[in-house]
């Protein structure tokens, strides 16, 4: 275990490594959570958006006269109204060479570019009046042909979304030495090529987007209460990109958040509309989306068309991997829209294999669909999925065991640290051992007997393995504040934000472990931008690496201040003061004069400092610390998933019968929460693999625009999961943690789809794209060669 934890020989009851129950659970399970839509502010008005029913067309008229006649309606606004107020636009923040920027106004003014594109909004005294007013707005659109897939958008005569984006292409991304890769494929003993579709998904967060805006005319300050993934970054985006005001004039507040998975990370057009209305009417203005609006306007995930190729030498060693892709950006560039199909494909297709050459070519295309942004994993599950499917196809073509092929190409522990072809530096891991443990837990050798039992029932049984390794999010500054409260509690202030993960408990465990603060006295403050000095938000499986490291560093600063203050109260030299832990002592750690029994507890010391009237050089005003971590380096969580499925060939229905996962997440601060995160990610991966199809008509209508048409997994669609851990703590942060939030998707996509392919291969079906719905499987079986 890393040095910061090594001094604690006896595990604390609530310390690092303990399966402590989530502090949030009693609140949430009793229905006492406070989400944005639960808030009702005095004098609050309601807003309803008016959206385009057309996917593509010239916006000829937006007439609000009838809406203003509806009783209770106070105002109706169009894009022209916002333009006249001098607001800015939503922008893509990804810095990629050659990217053509497509800026998005909050309300369309010249053209509409997808079904759900907002063109106006109505503000009224009640939600019902606002809805009636919105229905009275007259919108005239001169319809144009639409294009909904990235490859179709690249065709010469495809409908053009933007005059300044010829051919609809905003980026032609390339990485790798084209000549070397071409040469590697030319000289390879074996090559395989596979077309794969990374299907578009609707995010389907339990809580729809909702926001309440306020404006204080006295100080010109805006406040937005909204569910998000990080208030510090959202505040900057609202202030700098949309409102064109200093960040000090904007405050973002977030309470409980009912899921996001990447979708709520950035600003949306509705937020500027609300802030504008709050300023106009000097009253709070609230908006809550309905599920149909969410399906249409919440940023979608995935959507890539990929040709994957793998080259191997005569002994089966990987010599090169090549991905050639179309990435669907949707109608507007989301904040990180191009990231997934470019740099994240690149960093993650390496996985845990020694592949010396990687080439990625991705054409990012604009289409008449909902914008695409990050979704749990954001290119990481996809990179692993492509590699794992290629390995299975290569093994079948070569007539070798796919497990042996993986083992042969795993990066061995003795090669660590390992510099990958994408430039990533792996500091440790034991990939073959993780795979071996997963196979043992899955009773790998007993599969053939189970397959024959299924065959006797007329069912096809398949087994799939998914090795994965993820590169967590890029380094960013992160804050940790440790504040000793008047009532004897301690508040952690952090710039990450919990939208379902359960940050409060593991963060408190870290502080309890390092500083000895009683666990039950620790609070968490995370959703107020006014309280933050920095904040990278939550995303990319980096929260515990960033906030945990910042908390450890801030705790060290508290200890320094405490030793200084204790020297004053104990009348001793500071160098004689020792900081000693008292396991599970209500008073916390103690500051003691070395070699004596004279001491003062940390909590008592904090209380005394609060009572001192005036600070001096000899005595700090408090033990409070506000610390900013410069950056938390990437880490590389990895693992192996194994799934077994049964398929009914008469109906195409897939049932997952067994599921095993063994992971290396480094140090597990809270094993119970880690297992829960893995379960959630696995289920979302199963949903994408087997059920979730986002379908558009030729004219751009969203055909899967409700839960009647779009399937998500339920509890009875998944088995009980067997969870195992094989930790190799990382050296890139003092806790040794690697991140786990998105890993479930990274392992489940390849494991489930390899299992489906294995089962279908017995009927001559060698590959099937996600989602492998019953209809798709049934048709593939009917069309398979006899």
TrEMBL record:
<dbReference type="InterPro" id="IPR008274">
    <property type="entry name" value="AldOxase/xan_DH_MoCoBD1"/>
</dbReference>
<keyword id="KW-0500">Molybdenum</keyword>
<dbReference type="InterPro" id="IPR036856">
    <property type="entry name" value="Ald_Oxase/Xan_DH_a/b_sf"/>
</dbReference>
<dbReference type="InterPro" id="IPR037165">
    <property type="entry name" value="AldOxase/xan_DH_Mopterin-bd_sf"/>
</dbReference>
<feature type="domain" description="Aldehyde oxidase/xanthine dehydrogenase a/b hammerhead">
    <location>
        <begin position="30"/>
        <end position="145"/>
    </location>
</feature>
<dbReference type="Pfam" id="PF20256">
    <property type="entry name" value="MoCoBD_2"/>
</dbReference>
<keyword id="KW-0560">Oxidoreductase</keyword>
<dbReference type="InterPro" id="IPR016208">
    <property type="entry name" value="Ald_Oxase/xanthine_DH-like"/>
</dbReference>
<dbReference type="InterPro" id="IPR046867">
    <property type="entry name" value="AldOxase/xan_DH_MoCoBD2"/>
</dbReference>
<dbReference type="Pfam" id="PF02738">
    <property type="entry name" value="MoCoBD_1"/>
</dbReference>
<dbReference type="Pfam" id="PF01315">
    <property type="entry name" value="Ald_Xan_dh_C"/>
</dbReference>
<protein>
    <submittedName>
        <fullName>Xanthine dehydrogenase family protein molybdopterin-binding subunit</fullName>
    </submittedName>
</protein>
<dbReference type="InterPro" id="IPR000674">
    <property type="entry name" value="Ald_Oxase/Xan_DH_a/b"/>
</dbReference>
């Amino acid at each position: 275990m890393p040095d910061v934890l090594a001094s604690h020989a006896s595990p604390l009851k609530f310390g690092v490594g303990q399966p402590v129950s989530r502090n949030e659970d009693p609140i949430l399970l009793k229905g006492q959570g406070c989400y944005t839509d639960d808030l009702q502010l005095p004098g609050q008005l309601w807003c309803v958006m008016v959206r385009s029913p057309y996917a593509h067309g010239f916006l000829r008229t937006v007439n609000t006269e009838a809406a203003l006649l509806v009783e209770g309606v106070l105002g109706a606004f169009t894009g022209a109204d916002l333009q006249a107020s001098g607001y800015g636009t939503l922008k893509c923040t990804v810095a990629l060479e050659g990217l053509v920027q497509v800026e998005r106004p909050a309300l369309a003014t010249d053209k509409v570019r997808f079904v759900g594109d907002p063109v106006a909004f109505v503000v009224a005294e009640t939600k019902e009046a606002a809805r009636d007013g919105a229905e009275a707005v007259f919108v005239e659109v001169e319809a144009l042909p639409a294009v909904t897939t990235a490859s179709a958008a690249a065709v010469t005569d495809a409908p053009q979304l933007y005059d300044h984006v010829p051919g609809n292409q905003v980026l032609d991304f390339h990485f790798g030495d084209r000549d070397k890769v071409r040469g590697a494929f030319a000289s390879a003993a074996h090559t395989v090529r596979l077309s794969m579709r990374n299907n578009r998904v609707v995010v389907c967060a339990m809580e729809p987007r909702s926001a309440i805006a306020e404006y204080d005319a006295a100080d010109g300050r805006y406040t937005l209460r909204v569910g998000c993934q990080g208030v510090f970054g959202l505040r900057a985006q609202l202030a700098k990109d949309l409102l064109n005001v200093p960040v000090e004039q904007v405050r973002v507040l977030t309470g409980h958040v009912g899921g996001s998975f990447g979708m709520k990370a950035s600003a949306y057009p509705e937020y500027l509309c609300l802030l504008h209305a709050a300023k106009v009417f000097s009253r709070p203005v609230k908006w809550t989306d309905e599920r149909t609006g969410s399906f249409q306007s919440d940023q979608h995930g995935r959507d890539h068309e990929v040709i994957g190729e793998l080259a191997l030498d005569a002994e089966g060693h990987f010599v090169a991997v090549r991905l050639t892709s179309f990435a669907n950006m949707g109608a507007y560039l989301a904040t990180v829209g191009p990231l997934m199909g470019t740099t994240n494909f690149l960093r993650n297709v390496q996985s845990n294999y020694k592949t010396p050459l990687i080439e990625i070519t991705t054409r990012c295309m604009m289409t008449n669909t909902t914008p695409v942004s990050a979704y749990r994993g954001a290119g990481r599950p996809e990179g692993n999925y492509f590699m794992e499917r290629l390995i299975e196809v290569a093994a079948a073509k070569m007539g070798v065991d796919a497990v042996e092929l993986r083992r042969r190409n795993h990066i061995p522990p003795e090669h660590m640290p390992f510099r990958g072809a994408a430039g990533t530096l792996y500091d440790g891991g034991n990939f073959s051992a993780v795979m071996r443990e997963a196979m043992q837990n899955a009773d790998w050798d007993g599969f053939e007997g189970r397959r024959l039992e299924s065959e006797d029932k007329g069912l096809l049984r398949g087994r799939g393995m998914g090795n994965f390794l993820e590169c967590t999010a890029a380094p960013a500054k992160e804050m940790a504040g440790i504040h000793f409260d008047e009532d004897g509690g301690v508040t952690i202030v952090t710039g990450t934000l919990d939208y379902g993960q359960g940050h409060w408990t593991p963060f408190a465990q870290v502080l309890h472990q390092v500083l000895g603060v009683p666990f039950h006295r620790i609070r968490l403050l995370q959703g107020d931008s006014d309280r933050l000095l920095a904040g990278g938000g939550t995303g990319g499986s980096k929260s515990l690496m960033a906030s945990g490291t910042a908390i450890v560093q801030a705790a060290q600063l508290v200890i320094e201040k405490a030793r200084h203050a204790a020297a004053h109260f104990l009348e001793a030299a500071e160098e004689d003061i020792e900081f000693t832990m008292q396991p599970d002592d209500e008073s916390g750690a103690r500051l003691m004069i070395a070699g004596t029994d004279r001491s003062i507890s940390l909590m008592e010391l904090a209380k005394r400092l609060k009572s001192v009237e005036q600070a001096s050089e000899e005595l700090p005003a408090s033990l409070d610390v506000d610390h900013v971590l410069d950056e938390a380096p990437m880490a590389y969580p990895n693992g192996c998933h194994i799934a077994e499925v049964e398929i009914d060939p008469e109906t195409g229905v897939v049932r997952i019968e067994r599921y095993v996962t063994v992971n290396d997440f480094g140090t597990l601060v809270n094993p119970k929460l880690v297992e829960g995160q893995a379960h959630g990610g696995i289920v979302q991966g199963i949903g994408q693999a087997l059920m979730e199809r986002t379908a558009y008509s030729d004219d751009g209508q969203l055909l899967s625009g409700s839960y009647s048409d779009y399937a998500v997994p339920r509890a009875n669609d998944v088995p009980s999961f067997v969870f195992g851990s094989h930790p190799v703590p990382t050296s890139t942060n003092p806790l040794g943690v690697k991140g786990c939030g998105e890993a479930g998707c990274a392992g489940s996509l390849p494991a489930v789809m390899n299992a489906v392919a294995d089962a279908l291969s017995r009927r001559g079906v060698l590959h099937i794209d996600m989602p492998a719905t019953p209809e798709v499987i049934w048709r593939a079986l009917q069309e398979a060669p006899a």
